[in-house]
Fold this sequence. Notes:
The chain has 28 helices and 18 strands.
Amino acid sequence: MSDFLLELRSEEIPARMQAGARAELEKLFRREMDAAGVECGEITVWSTPRRLALIARGLPEATEAVSEELKGPPVGAPDQALDGFCRKAGVDKGNLETRDVKGRATYFAVKNVPGRATKDLLAEAIPAIIRDFSWPKSMRWGAASISTESLRWVRPLSGIVALLGDDVVECEVHGVTSGSVTLGHRFHHSGDITIGNADDYAKKLRAGHVIVDHAERQDLIRSGAAKVASKAGLKLVEDEGLVIENAGLTEWPVPLLGRFEEDFLEVPPETIQLTARVNQKYFVCEDEAGELANAFICTANIEAEDGGARVVDGNRKVLAARLSDARFFWDVDRKKTLAEHAKGLERITFHEKLGTVADKVERVAKLARWLVEEGVVKGADADMAEQAARLAKADLVTEMVGEFPELQGLMGGYYARAEGLPDAVADAIRDHYKPVGQGDEVPSAPVTVAVSLADKLDTLAGFFVIGEKPSGSKDPFALRRAELAIIHLITKNSLRSSWEDLHATASDGHYGSALTARLKRYGEKLLGFDAYRYPDRPDQDDSIGIGPEDVHNWSFEAEKVSRGITDAQKPLSEFLIDRLKVQQREAGVRHDLIDAVFALGGEDDLVRLLARVKALQSFMDTEDGANLLAGYKRAANILKKEDWHGAEGEIARTGEEDPLALVDDPDMKAVIDAKMNERHAKELSYEPETAEKALMDALATSEPAAARAIEAEDFSGAMAALASLRAPIDRFFDEVTVNADEENKRAHRLDLLAAFRAAVHKVADFSRIEG
C-alpha cells in the first residue's frame, strides 16, 4: 500500500472558487479510481491561493486481474445483433463462447483483464482530471491559446507534483510535466522545494512559509484577529465568511490591527463594516460599550520586518478613501427627504407588466393601511403604516444604496431617523424586507409587520395575476421565499385573517393598476375615470366625451383583467398550502396529519389551522389517539364495504338542509342534538345492546363537546372529547355484531358507525392519517 500526492500549482485561484475546487478534485479523482477498479482509503484535499493538493492514503501497488463476462444474444439471432454485440464487447465472433441459458444456447463474451500497476493508472488519470476540471470561470493562455483545443484552467497552470509513495508518477498535460518539485511562499521563500512523499509535503511547505491546510489558516486568522483586537482593548466583530475568504487569499496569514479617523464613525456603522468587508476584506471591532470602534483588522500574507507597520499604514490609506466615499454618499443623500427621493421611483421599472416601483409603492401603501384598518394587524397606526410603506423603497435611488445594494432598507431607516420621522416608521422602513430567508428575524413591531406583509402580498399577487408562477425548480422572482415569509409573519404574530381575503385584496390592487395601464391606449380622457372604484365599465357620459366604442373597449379590457384576477385566486391559495406543508414538514410535523386537517376544507385561517395540526399531532402520539385511529379505520372500512353514507352523507348527496346547520349557538346545538338522539333511540324497534347504547351515549356527549371546543378554538379539548370515544368504540366492536340478520339492527348500527365517523371528521379527516 502506498500514499498518493497530487499538487496542481497555478497563479492565484480566487478565494470564492477554492471550496468548489476542492470538492471537484476529490470527485474527479474518485471517478478515475472507481473506473480503474482502485479502492481508495482516506482522501484529504487542501487549497491555497496558488495550489490544490490531494492526498489519497492506502492505494494498492497494482490492480488484480479480473475476468469479465458479458451475456449476448441467443444462438441463431440475426447477424446484425451478433455484430453489434461483438463491437460492444470488443471481441471477435470466433472468441465467443456458447452456454446453456434456460435450455437455449446463448453467446457469451469472456474478457480476461490483466492487473495493472496503480502508477500507470494514475499517469492516465491525472491528465483526465485536469482536462475535465470544471471552474466557474476559466482561461486559456500562451501561444497554445489560439486553439480551442488548448487547456482551460482557472489561472495558468504552472506545475504538477505527482508522487505514489516515493516515486514520481510521470505524466504531461499541455506542456506541463509532473515531478516532485514545488514552490514555497512567493516572498518568504526562494528556490525549489523537493517533496519526498505525501507525508513530508505539508512539513516542507511549512518550512517554505506555506500553510497548505486551509482549515488551519482559518483557525489562525480567527484566533489571531481576536487576539490583536483584545490586545487593543477591543472585541472582534466575528465574520466567518470573511475568515474563509482571507484564508483563501493568504498562504501565511498574519492579522494586523490598524486605526482610521474617528470622524468616519458619524457614518452608519453598517456602512463602515460593509465598506471594510466588501472592498477591503477587513474585519471591524467594537469597543467595551458594544459600539463600532475606529479600528480594522487586515490579514497580511507576510511577516514584515517592521511588525506590519507599513502594511497597516497602506491599508489605512486605502480604507480612508473608501470611507470618504461612504461619508460623501451619506451627506449627499441627507440633503433630500425620503419623500423627495421617492419621486425617483417613477423611473425604475418593477416589472414590465406590473409597472414601476412607484406603482408598487402605491399598492403597498393602500394594502398596509387596509391591514391595519381591518384589524388584521393590531396595535398599529394606519397613518404610520401608510407613510412607512410610501417611503420604504425610497432609499433605492440614494447614492449609498447605489454603491451598496445590500444596505437597502437599512439606509432608509437611518435617513428616516435623520429627518426626524417617528421611530415606528423608521423601523418599518428598515425591516420591511424581513424575513428574507430561513432563520431570519421575523418582525413583530405592528407597523413593520403591516408594511412587510403588504409588500410581500403585493409581489406574490402581482406575479400570479400576470401568470408568472414558479414552475419546477424555476422561481426567478423568489415567490416561494415570499410566501414562506408571509407564513412566518402571520404565524409568528398570530394574525387572524382569511388568506383568501388577503390574496383577494392584494390582487384587487393589481386590478386597478392593470386596468388603468391598459386603458391608456384609449386616450387621456379615460384616465380621469376612477377605474379602481368602478372596475366594470363607465356609464356613457357625453360630458367627458366617452362614446360607445370607448365603453366597449373599456368593458373588454376590464373583463380581461378581471378574468386574470379571478384565475389567480385558486393557484395563489394552492401555492400557499403547498408552501405551508413544506414548512411544517421541515418543522417536524407529519405530512399525513397536515393533509388530515387540510382535507376538512373551509379552513383558511393559518393560526387556527396550525393550532389544530399541533393538537392533532400531540393527540396521535398518545395511546388514545392510536387506538381511536384503529377504531376509526375499522368503522370506515365497514362503511365503505357496505357503501353506507349515514345521515350526514345522505344530506350531502341529496342537498337537503341539515337542521343543525341553521343553529349558531353551540349550546343550543348540543341540546337539539341530544334530543334528536333521544328521539331516535325511542324510535328504535328493538332494545339496543349494552355496548351499542354506550356508544350512542358517548357520541351524544362527545360530539357536541368537540364541536364546542372547536368553536372556542380549544383543539386540545376537542381531542380530549374524541378520546372519550375510544373505549366505547372498542367495546362496540368486541360485543356487537354490526351486520346483524335483522335489517333494522343492521341499519341502525351502520348509522351509528357513520355518526362516529362524522364526529371524528369534525376534528380531522382520519382517513388521511397513516397507521
